[in-house]
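Reference record
================
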Amino acid sequence: MHFDGKTLYFLSERSPSLGASDFFMSTRINDSTWSDPINLGFPFNSFGEEFSLVIDKSGQFGYLASDRGEAIVPSYDGLSALDLYRFDLPKHLQPEIRDNYDLVVVDSLTLRSIGDASVQLFNVDGVQFFSGTSAKNTGRVRLMTDGGEVRLSVYHKGYLPYSGVISQLDYIARPLHGNNVATIKLIPIAAGKAFALRNILFELDQSTLLPESEKELTALLRMLEDNLDLNATIIGHTDNQGGRAYNQRLSEARAAAVLSWLVEHGIQPTRLTSEGRGMDKPVASNDTDAGRALNRRTEVLLR
């Protein structure tokens, strides 16, 4: 399976075949359906025996093992074993391109790396594709991406939860490795600090929490469990779509939904309050989709 998660290269003796076993390609259409296999043809396959094939994350080249050398120079015994060949892949056989990007978790004050931070990564549809921790000594997480939007939630004891989105523009502006590194700065926790959780999502025009919000809510829950001396005010914010009274009610209901979730998961109600500020505290312009998305947020004020 290639890094794109949908292109499968495999070895089979099925027909049509040039040799005893050939390389084929099939593409995943949905969770239960695959395209008809395509024989990769010559020179990937030969009259010899093919064994193993690997395609680079770029999808443009790869390596294969074959004993075809014996057919080319039959008198040379050294070519009767498998040899490694590098090849360029034609456009029609290429998978979707993937690339590596690094996230580095650091302390916002000292810029020292933070290892063992909990890191959750999701695509734009809310599907989680990584759940793990930052490297112990470097604070680094290696991300394989198609350049699309990535939502992330990061938490480490002693720090505020981090919530954000890495967009395609961020990849272009800060491609990773040297420049290909996105720095995630965690802020030390303290009463009076406020932070926004941007991956707490709701049904459209409702206060019903979406399932993909749970990882971010869990980070908030862990922070409150780790800091029993702190209380929190949950604050709902909206964009300017709809009237002021409507947005005020929606923001209050959404903040209350987050508070209820925390109570249901063990936080004492006396430690929590909620309020809504509607459309009155924007952090970006409401003239664009991106700006409105930033304004729709759940804020937490520690007390």
